[in-house]
Amino acid sequence: MAAPAEPGHSPGFKKPPALLRLKRKRPVRRSDPAAAAAEATAAPAPRGSGAARRRNPFSSLDNAPRRAAAAPQPPAAAPAGGDPSAAPFWQFLEPACEEKPPGRAEPAESSDILALSQDLHSPLAVPKAPSSPRQEFPADWSIKTRVLFMSSQPFTWAEHLKGQEEAQGVAQHCRAAETSLPRSVQEPRLCTELRCAFQQSLLYWLHPSLPWLPLFPRLGADRSMAGKACPWAQDEALQQVLMSDWSVSFTSLYQLLRARLCPYFYVCSAQFSVLFRAAGLAGSAEPTAAIAPTTRGLRHAMRAEGIEFSLPLLEESGARKQKNSEESLETEMAEGLIRGSRVEDAGEPAPSDDDDDGNFSWLEEMGVQGKVKKPDTISIQLRKEKHEVQVDHRPESLVLVRGSNTFRLLNFLISCRSLVAVAGPQAGLPPTLLSPVAFRGGTLQTLKARTVSGRARVPGGFEDVFSLEVLGPVLPHALHALTLLLGPAQRGSFRALLSPHEPSAAFNTRPGPPQEDEQQDLPAYGLHPKTLDQLRQCPTLGKSSLRLLEMKDYSYTWKA
């Protein structure tokens, strides 16, 4: 005879006991405060509620969990219905990181514009921009990984290019042909010149060409290259062939630069990036090369090869600190806020690390030469160079090479062992060369562009919002060429969100003091005359780069 079932027990353990199901608490709705208060009163008090809660001994101050009340609230929360238009506007201003989490999904074409559109009309989402609009925006020498153009006018003219239009755009690029457009295009979709010029602005030259590998960016790109086929990683003979071919292409680009046939080009390695600029650009009368980021070891190797260079950001910071210290000292002395002893010390030269020549005779005078351990030569050298070591891998470590030293830099980079990684996914892979003009061994590439349309919330209802997304290494001339096309096509009104490659933002540093006698005749370099006029101006962005660019009534405002 089977035993009678106990109350609250499910035979066969196939279902949870009914007693547990009854004890489950039903979720309390936020709209019913009375029910929430009643359940909170009926709930049993936690054990040891009178005593302070024990701290987790395995948590540190940085990773300790914050209370919900102290957690910062996001500026714009998504509505309950899951409307993507409530997404924060600033999430699209963050740089396109090379090492994206593998679980991140790309937004759908039908909905990603909705996440951008609501903040177009929100005054809180508009960054601070120059108060007076200008006819031209400053030159930006950083490489953009993503550019998103938005407008109330459709971008139908930029999609589904015909084969003849693509061929014409390639021919115009190779022949350095200039396209002149009216101030406003009435029917952009039917304008063949506009569509061909758009194809022309998307072209650039690359070396080496390995279609299965992402060759830009190279800094921090190990995760994106992991698991890809790299037959040269364990084959030294193949590595030598790749480097030999790369050296020929690199030398060809430099010769084009010196002959004033190439305006600029980039060398992107796994450790640093180099920007070579021709004479007459960026306010310099001679060729320049900027390297960022750098390390003390790289700078020491360059000095050993006789390459003269400067650290403009570090020198500017040091001059600013010295000026501020002198001003503060004069103020203190004038107001009598320091004691007489300090005033006497102020007239004496400050102790400098450079005066330390390693002479420790003063220890013998004190009679403690055998009791104090003398520092070794390496420690003394590191002490002298402590300020230089602190800027390694930072924008302040930007190195600027001018004039004939750029040729020494060319030879140094060709023979530099640290230019190519010896381990990891990028082992044995030569640096990436990016150029706006053709060169020996270069491959013609096209930036990826797509159009997205959607509807956005506005105070009065909904409105149509359109966007054009451009992905890839967007070079400085390509960004300006695209803006020249969007002005007439979008009737002088659009907004652009820019995602720069962060290490290249330091290239916006001024290469030297402004020079007045630099309005010399420059070759076209295969660029539009307005683009050339912009690139010849002295950089003004410092170590920052453009994040937001807006045109309204054919005038620009921007945010850096």
UniProtKB/TrEMBL annotation:
GO terms for biological process: nuclear DNA replication. Keywords: Developmental protein, Nucleus. This is DONS protein. Residues 33-51, 78-88 have a biased composition (Low complexity). Its main location: nucleus. The keyword Heme does not apply. GO terms for cellular component: nucleus. The gene is Donson. InterPro entries: Donson. Residues 1-88, 502-522 are annotated as: Disordered. Belongs to the DONSON family. It is found in: Nucleus.
